[in-house]
Amino acid sequence: VHILPESFKKSAGLEVSFLVMLGILIFFSLEKFLRWRHCHIADPTKHYHPVVAMNLVGDNVHNFIDGVLIGASFLVSVPIGLASTLAIILHEIPQEIGDFGMLIRFGLTKKKALIFNFISSFSAIFGALASLIIGSYIKDYALIILPITAGGFIYLAGSDLIPELHHETKISASLGQLMAIILGVGAMAALLLLE
Known about the structure:
- By secondary structure, this protein is an all-alpha fold.
- It has one domain.
- It is 83% helix and 0% strand.
- It is built from seven helices and no strands.
- α2 (13-34) packs across α6 and α3 runs antiparallel to α4 (78-105).
């Protein structure tokens, strides 16, 4: 809601559309190739499975890219940066919980899984710093990154969030989900008004 209008204001519609599609493709590829999990060992809890290293590398890359997106959003404006940060945090919480469980399942102790997960979160800070530095040298950097960010958010909503919401079948919980979505869109619209 907050990223696309800014992009369309400052760039050609077709260019922005292609960059949004590129964002969807990038996030699909990241999830497909960096988060791919397949185990050929009957009892992976007896040692550190190679998927532990693959998960940690993938999580670092993913967090770095999240940081790049956050940094680019702040280059446009503080409200857009805050909204992007909130959206990424809301996506990251369940993902990191899932990563934590997977690391334990494949051989790490709870303490080590927590430490490695915490350390990998620092790559987001490096990504944000890289984005802010690059953005200070390249004039249209944010105009390229923001539509890619929007595509990434569209992909995450379509591939992760919406399917998860469909698991809930109770009417009261479904109405609560709908209200949360409406409140989220309202909050994003309010941020646009603050600009």
